[in-house]
Amino acid sequence: MTCSRTVAVRYALEADMLPPLVEAVDALVAGLPDAADREVLFEVPAFESIPDLVIVQLSHDAVTRRLAAGVTAVPDLTCVRVLAGLAAGIDSLDALAHRCGVTPAHLRRKVVPSLVAAGWLSDLEGLRLDAPFEPVLNWVVTVEAKRSKWREAYAQARRQKRVADRAFVALDAGSANPARPWSEEFAVQGIGLVTVDARTDTAKVERRPRRGPRPDTDARFLLGERVMEMTAAGVSVGKTFPVFGQMLPMRVSVC
Question: Model's pTM, two decimal places?
Answer without folding.
Answer: 0.87
